[in-house]
Give the backbone structure.
Amino acid sequence: MTKKVAVILSGCGVYDGAEIHESVIALLRLDQRGAKVQCFAPNIAQHHVIDHTTGDEMPESRNVLVESARIARGEIKDVRELKAEDFDALIVPGGFGAAKNLSDFALSGASCTVQPDVLAAARGFAEAHKPVGLICISPALAAKIYGAGVSCTIGNDAGTAAALTEMGAQHVECEVSEIVQDEKRKLVTTPAYMLAQSISEAAAGINKLVDRVLELTH
């Protein structure tokens, strides 16, 4: 039976949106495994816009949903429409958009909040005990979704791991090619570009994450 998987994007571009490589690798693996995918994003303004050639902030405003549609080839919906009962699993790629648009973790660290529509959607999967995959920096959302005690990884960055621990998560160090699973909560995480030095290194862990998330839907 074909599995239906929701993917929440956070814009388009590593410095101010969804990490494009991570997003495409996840979407490709889902397609290779025969899953039916629907992309979602919050219909809100980005925190800011970054020139990806220089790293400088640009004097303009962009919409997270509109930018995410670039990755989704236009096939995208407002995350307000995302209901866990319509899907078997959820995956959230990383990129600074997860920490600037889906949440304010990049600014507020352990005292961050998650965008309300994103939080409601993700908690729906947690409450339904359906599998969730969080990639790269998006495990920063884990404690807000699941509460204290959730196990997850962002690789081995001490500062970020400390912030996750302060939020109530149990951080587990992880190689770029591996995954960490919280079996009780059906949460799977992988470091991807928190550690990856190439797209193939990122793909190694993301492919394992997608495969495991799909296994957990059975």
In short: The first helix runs from residue 20 to 32. Helices lie at 20-32, 64-71, 96-100, 105-108, 116-127, 142-146, 158-167, 199-215. The chain is about 35% helix and 15% strand. The first strand starts at residue 4 and ends at 8.
